[in-house]
Amino acid sequence: MAEFIIGSPLRRLARRHPLLQRILWRLDYALVWSLVKLFALLPIDFASRLGERAGRIIGPRLQQKTAIFRDNFRTVFPDLTDAELQALITDAWGRAGRILAEYPHLGQMIRNNDRVIVEVREPVPAYTPGGPPCIVVTPHLSNWEIAGAAMYRLGMPNANLYSPPSNPYLDKMLHDNRSQLNCDLLHRDQGARLLLQALKRGRTAGMVMDRRIDEGQPVEFFGRPKPSTLLPAKLSLKTGCPMVPAQVTRIHDANYRVIFHAPIKPRNVGASDNEQALDMIQQVHSLFEAWILEQPADWFCSKRLWDKPKGGTPANPLEQDNGIESYAA
What we know:
45% helix, disordered C terminus, seven-stranded mixed sheet, alpha/beta, 11 helices
């Protein structure tokens, strides 16, 4: 989420003046709260369709984020014409609007078995209520919040790393809404330690991990190296908990299928721990590529993923991601 929504042009001034910052935070909270309450009053499918219309209108007008969408999609689909690329960006903003509109209906979607179809490709003990934990990884694809709903359906208490919004009022709203998924939110700044503790308590760790991590290691993603975290793979190797990719696909409106794929394992168990972890993360990213190519408009690539070409404009550090995000991101 942007640092400020309503007062975006004033963000530099607000950083220097705490009173202005608090005012803008409250205005942003009022806007988001109003939208969430409006969508909550509407039937879920109607809310989802309305959210898409709003996203298609509002999203392309957010120039800074739209430019990042354009750069990322251009990397993945270099042969698209300008008109085709713009249509894809508009579609992606529409899907983002659906995610916001569906957010207050997560509880309903959990209770309605017809809304979320859960498919398990290779069962692991973690899918049994009371079973040992695992590590679930997924990209910002479709509505990634639904992966948490699927884990809840399987009886898997979970803990997710997340990047807290700078607005404390929105952060509290996020925590309140996530409580219905039996999910603990863990601040990313102490991610490894907190996730390890959660796994020891029997909670499955959930991570959305297609974004760049500036301090990470390069992993090939759509033909270009992307700095990426190895944390989920290293935790899997350290604890023996399987690392499971989860694919969320929208069937229509607010109806989804969540596929838990076979756990990712290192292909060379004789390699060093770091080499094994890097191999596991590369396998995950190869899966992500295939899923994104199947449904490109559902990919929420709102952060810069790759380094700028030499001679290009340096990436804005405010638009880079410096940690793993969670289903709540």
